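Memo to structure team: turn this sequence into structure tokens by end of day. - J.P.
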Amino acid sequence: MPRLALYSLAVCLLATAAAVVSFVRGPWWLGVVWVLLAGVSSNMSLYYRRRSRPVSE
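Reply from structure team:
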């Protein structure tokens, strides 16, 4: 797995944890921001992972 995919996966996991903490303890709108960041980083991780695979014809 490429390095950028691993970094974005780590950001996704940390953003998910931050969203849970924010929904439990903080303002709900901040939790929404963290959920959106988790979604973007998840898509980035999938993109970089798929881009690194060789194209099979």
